[in-house]
Structure formats: C-alpha cells, structure tokens
Design a protein that fits this description.
The protein is mainly alpha-helical. It has helices at residues 3-18, 44-57, 60-68, 72-79, 83-91, 98-109, 111-121, and strands at 26-31, 37-42. A two-stranded antiparallel ribbon has the order 1-2. Strand 1 and strand 2 (37-42) form a beta hairpin. Helix 3 runs parallel beside helix 6 (98-109) and helix 4 (72-79) packs across helix 5 (83-91). The longest helix has 16 residues, at 3-18.
C-alpha cells in the first residue's frame, strides 16, 4: 500500500472515530461463556452519532493525545508532566494552564518539535 493510500485510510478511520462519517459496517462482538463469539450487526448511522457525542465530550487534552495515538503514560512523558496531571486534564478535574494549553496546541500540530525539545532537556 502506498503512503498516500495509507494516509487516506488513516484519515477516514479518524473521521469515523470522531463521528464525522459513518463506517460501512459495524459489528458488536461479545465473547460468550465457553469461548464462542456472538456477532451482532449495528446500524452505522447510530454508531456515527454515538461516536460524535463521545468525541464532543472529550477534553482538549484527551483529543490531542488520541490524535497522536499515545497512551497517557507516553503523552505525559512527551509533554514533560506527570501521569497524574494528564489524568486530571482528561477527566476534567484539572485544567491545563495557559502555557500547557499552548504546549498542547504545539503537540497537536508539531509533535516532533515537542519530542525534540524533551530530548534536549534530558
């Protein structure tokens, strides 16, 4: 698969996750007692609406971390803050300071710059 095709597929997957477009098919898979799988077809438009509501409910820090495809631990290390700080930002009990908001914006647009700056500071 070419790089441009991969980027297109990833862009579509992210749009589905944000609830911007509906996927072609959605299945809910449940592991039953005994190890068998139960597959149930779901309505793609209902799934899209649910994803859109969930995405709107996320905090800005959670959205940035999700877009970068990082764990909370890796995101905390990238930004040079504690894991507890990231958790507070994501659950809404704490809010990033002005400088941290700027750092989140830079992390969203240019994560490589943050990684380079953190590496130099170590």
């Amino acid at each position: 698969m070419k790089k441009s095709e991969t980027e297109t597929v990833l862009g579509e997957a992210r749009a589905i996750e944000r609830g911007e477009i509906a996927p072609g098919r959605v299945r809910k898979v449940t592991v039953m007692p005994g190890g068998t799988l139960k597959r149930v077809e779901l309505d793609p438009e209902t799934y899209r609406r649910k994803q859109a509501r969930a995405w709107k409910a996320k905090t800005e820090a959670a959205k940035v971390r999700h877009e970068l495809n990082l764990t909370q631990d890796a995101f905390a290390e990238l930004l040079g803050v504690s894991l507890a700080t990231i958790r507070k930002w994501e659950c809404g009990t704490g809010e990033p300071s002005g400088a941290a908001k700027t750092l989140l914006a830079v992390a969203r647009l240019h994560p490589e710059v943050i990684r380079e700056a953190v590496a130099v500071g170590k």
